Amino acid sequence: MRPLRGESNRPVTTEAGAVGRWGMLGSMSTRCPLHCDFCYHLGNPPEVITGRIASLKTPHMVRELCRQIAAGNYPAFDDRVGEYFANPHILDNIRVFREYFPDDQIDFTTSGFGLTEDRVAALATLQPVFLQVSLNTADAATRRRIMKDPMPEVAIAAIRHLCDYRVPFSGTIVAWPGLELDDIANTIRYLDAHQAVSIKINLPSYTRFFPISEDFDTFETWSRLTELVRGLRREVATPVTWEPYFFDASPFDAVVVGVVRNSPAARAGLRPGDRLLEIDGETVVFLEQARRLLIRRDLADDRRRLTVDRDGCVVSVDLVEEGGRDHDDYPHKPRGHSAVGRMFGVFLHQGLDLFALGQVRRRLAERPAGRTLLLTSTLLAPQVEALFAMAAPLGPGEVTVSAAPNRYFGGNVMIGDLLVASDIVEAIRLDEAAHGTPDLIVVPGSSFNDGRDLVGAPTSDIVTATSAEVMILSNARILV
């Protein structure tokens, strides 16, 4: 059978596409000089498409790419990764980009290596810029040990410099077992003290290829980390979350995780734990709907009215963005930045994309199926099963929700974005052996890019493995 491709619902941040014009230049980074104990490259098999080392881009190359983009000829971009500030041309590359696109936001991820005060000061003149800093620890000795950083003080001081020069950033901590809980807590406090927009804790994961020296109990370790985060949320002002969030939290409930400093949400008194009931009069049913209502461009760009449930009481708050690009509300919207897409400072986790299930509903309305097999990840399967137990059916017939274990990557990986075609084929075979061939099989599309998985296998491998009709959803990558 031919696979069905659902409609695209990926966000578009600029007219150049979902990646933005900066992203279309490809990676500006080069080989990372650090050797982190937890680097995901260590767990990648050679055939995995991601994880290639980025090539060194020069200002001349960037200028030529910018000319193409400005003319509407969008080049094919590479997704190779490395360290931005290991590229000696990075600031000159940004300056060239700014000649062509003075208002486009520049986003990139860095370990903080080479992010000296001089470079931060230069970034402050090239706004709008947003950094995701993988700090991991605010203790120099620990950073030297777990990241093999020869100059850990530079990255730690960079957090202070970013705040001083009003360059917005978020902080990331990979909570590897080599980090003590007290160290993680102190790093969260350090990031909070220097006005990070948000802080993310990556729950430790590894593949079967990873040379891990000491195994750990995933459920126990992850539970201790999420408990730590919940406790610190009462202490710090910065929104703190973990990933994958659907461990120990609902992907459906529209609950405020935190509010960004100096944002409309902060000024209006919105609080962590507030449950969103309405946005501009529209009833909020699930989390991802709330996110879309907050960023919808056909509504007024500078204001929203929220109705929330706060400890059993219904409260209404008005969120109003003040001023334009020249107005400074650091860290929410520093001078030179646009307020568009910032969700008024309301920090929500990314939820399960229930809009994608509309594709299945429309397909079943056109051609009813006796049995539909809906595949999802090991982590998310219980949540999806609970959803179908309480929600209206997708259509006539039976819907079976089944987890596709991450057999290829193995280890303690259990998220849908890292499923490969062979994982899905095996899950289909096991289901058909137990229940017979379904009429329709629904596969999450976040595992595939241009019809191929991370090891290069095509979706046709799934289609030819079954006589059932296969529908591949167009759902965004959400680490589930």
Brief sketch in words of this structure:
29% of the residues lie in helices and 15% in strands. It is α/β, with parallel strands linked by helices.
Tell me the layout of helices and strands.
Elements: E1 4-5, H1 20-24, H2 59-70, H3 90-100, E2 106-110, H4 117-124, E3 129-134, H5 140-147, H6 152-164, E4 169-174, H7 181-193, E5 199-202, H8 218-232, E6 240-243, E7 258-259, H9 264-267, E8 275-279, E9 282-283, H10 287-295, E10 303-310, E11 313-320, E12 346-347, H11 357-366, E13 371-376, H12 381-390, E14 398-403, H13 421-435, E15 440-443, H14 460-463, E16 469-472
Parallel strand pairs: 1-16, 2-3, 3-4, 4-5, 5-6, 13-14, 13-15, 15-16
Antiparallel strand pairs: 7-12, 8-9, 8-10, 10-11
Helix pairs in contact: 2-3, 4-6
Strand content: 15-25%
Indicate how many domains the architecture comprises: 3
Regions with pLDDT < 50 over 5+ consecutive residues?
A: 1-18
How many DSSP helices?
14
Radius of gyration: 23 Å
Question: How are helices and strands ordered from N to C?
Answer: EHHHEHEHHEHEHEEHEEHEEEHEHEHEHE
Shape, principal axes of CA atoms: globular
Instruction: Indicate the CATH architecture of the largest domain.
Output: Alpha-Beta Barrel
